[in-house]
Amino acid sequence: MPEARTPADIEADIVRRRQELAASLDEIAVRVHPKTIMGDVKAKASAAVDRTAGRAYVAANRALTDVRAQFVGEDGAPRMERVVPVALVTVAVVGGLFALSARRRRG
């Protein structure tokens, strides 16, 4: 048969439960405080930006490696059969832009 609780036991239990409730309320107050919420939002946004920047870096690095592979052989020497046509097209485009620019200035 369980022992009967004394008034001192009941009072001690009430004090303990009040302290637990006060601790719970303090924790809730910290969680719903605007600074805490903003800190959580900033942390999540920062993590999302870091993930996105990491993915962008990997994609750009992969694209650069693919382009480089088109113009440089495995031994590191330039692949002239690809470099020369691209250089000629670039010179033609830049020359055309200069010609258009000069034409606009005159006329």
Question: What tags apply to this protein structure?
Answer:
107 residues; mainly alpha; elongated
How is this structure best described in words?
By secondary structure, the chain is an all-alpha fold. The chain has a domain at 79-107. The chain is built from three helices and no strands. The radius of gyration is 36 Å and the shape is elongated. The termini are far apart. The chain crosses the membrane at residues 83-102. Keywords: Membrane, Transmembrane, Transmembrane helix.
Measured distance between first and last alpha carbons: 111 Å
Give average pLDDT, whole number.
Answer: 92
The multimeric state of the shown protein is: single chain
**Structural class designation:** mainly alpha
